[in-house]
């Protein structure tokens, strides 16, 4: 709930209920600096965009999810993405539309 309004904060009223994006960082306050040092997450408030999960057996297959930040795991790029209101999911780059193109043929077993 808004209990004070500073100069330049237009469009808000005292007592108004608001929410914030817990993944956004101002990068300046003590909390954001501490969190950045601990997690080394995104360095700015700019969105990293969205991706589509392409892995055929993943529960989110075909869904578009917001990228919160990227990191390296075992030498490969992984995306940490929003999954609902307060959850996140980590996806290897190869399981997304940002990964390499899939092979143009299917594998088959001949007996």
TrEMBL record:
InterPro entries: ADH-like_N, DUF5372, GroES-like_sf. Residues 2-46 form the Alcohol dehydrogenase-like N-terminal domain. This is Alcohol dehydrogenase-like N-terminal domain-containing protein. The lineage of its organism: Bacteria, Bacillati, Actinomycetota, Actinomycetes, Frankiales.
């Amino acid at each position: 709930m808004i209990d004070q309004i500073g100069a330049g904060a237009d469009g808000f009223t005292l007592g108004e209920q608001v929410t914030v994006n817990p993944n956004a960082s101002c990068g300046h306050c003590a909390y954001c600096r501490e969190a950045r040092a601990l997690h080394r997450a995104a360095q700015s408030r700019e969105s990293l965009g969205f991706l589509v999960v392409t892995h055929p057996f993943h529960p989110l297959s075909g869904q578009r999810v917001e990228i919160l930040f990227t990191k390296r795991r075992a030498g490969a790029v992984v995306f940490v993405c929003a999954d609902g209101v307060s959850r996140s999911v980590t996806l290897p780059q190869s399981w997304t539309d940002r990964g390499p193109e899939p092979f143009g043929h299917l594998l088959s077993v001949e007996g």
